[in-house]
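[09:14] KT: can someone run the structure on this one? pasting the chain below
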Amino acid sequence: MPSEIIVALFSFLGTVLGSVFGILSSNRLTVYRIKQLEEKVDKHNKVIDRVYKLEAKNDLREEEIKVANHRIDDLEQYHK
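[09:31] RB: done, structure tokens below
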């Protein structure tokens, strides 16, 4: 085989291998970054769930305080 064809084949092989390894490494980095973002989203969602539960408890406590204040007012008026 002429040397030009051999050089062309090696160049083609080098180009293909370089492209494949570049794509694989880029894919690995993309997968890693997506995983990190998913972990951040999970942490954020946990915080949102906790805040929602705290707000629900807070609403319940406020209602209990209103009822207690109303009962206190009734007792004060009864004893006057």
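[09:33] KT: thanks! The CA atoms of residues 16 and 22 lie 10 Å apart.
[09:34] RB: yep, looked fine to me
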